[in-house]
Amino acid sequence: MAAFETAEGVGARVKRSVGTPGMWNPSPFLILDWATVERGAGFPTHPHRGMSTLTWVLDGTMQHEDFLGNKGVLGTGDAQWMTAGRGIVHSEMPLFPDDGPDTATSTSLQLWIDLPAAKKMVKPSYQDRKAASMGRAAWDGGSVTVVVGSVCGASGPIKPTGAEGMLFADFALERAGSEAWADVPAGHTAIVYVLSGTVKIGDTTLEAHHAAILSAGDAETGVLLTKPSGRKPSRVVLIAGKPLDQPVVQQGPFVVTSREAAAQAVKDFQSGRNGFEKAPGWVSEIGKTARPGGGRRRRD
Length: 300
Hints:
Blueprint: E1 4-8, E2 12-16, E3 29-38, E4 43-48, E5 51-59, E6 62-66, E7 71-74, E8 79-83, E9 88-94, E10 105-114, E11 125-129, E12 135-139, E13 142-148, E14 150-151, E15 154-155, E16 167-173, E17 179-183, E18 189-196, E19 199-201, E20 204-206, E21 211-214, E22 222-226, E23 234-241, E24 249-251, E25 254-256, H1 259-271
Antiparallel strand pairs: 1-2, 2-3, 3-10, 4-9, 5-8, 5-10, 6-7, 6-9, 8-11, 12-13, 13-16, 14-15, 16-23, 17-22, 18-21, 18-23, 19-20, 24-25
């Protein structure tokens, strides 16, 4: 399916695949957004509970800040795993040089991952990892950068809280006929998202910004990615994880397992309790760079 373009945050445009009616909550995954953000746009102050996010910066620079005092900067090729747990309020905004062009953009891929019920109220935490720390492997006609998990003999630096055994890897296929085989444990949910070029899986050819869920039968233990044609390299992200045997109730940025828990999350955020004690009145400094216009809805 083609990713659906929509407005998010303030002035940002995202192409969403996972989290749309055609690809709704393929456990443990909730949302997959490819986002391009211009100067004055971004994702200012907003909350989360009960889930994690993985942000992979494809080009440019993103900065983040939360109500606990955590802050940092991610450059091209860097990644961040954020576990919201019982509650986080934060901002994610692009960072540009003061003398840079107004047309500059920052591009990233963000994945939302459900937390197991037993870990939904854990303490919030972060893992920021630089591009140089990513796992890498190369072969004739292809290469892979591994952010989470292990594939093709390479392992990523991020240890996914509550999603042990997960895989997030960026494959590059250099020329027509180039191939990559990736092992995926039987029964795991596996998703491919094409960043550029075309990629063939079985009899299906996917173009840029198209995604597909792979069959998860007991006999399925991997996927063969092939570049069918074209001179420019193709890039495709492979994501895999073990499904969670639990209900998913998503109330905007809060992901829980019942309607009662969803109502409680909203109440806790509004009243500043149960993990949101520092939320009342907190406004991100970096979020103040957002200008009204474009998409006005928060990233939720």
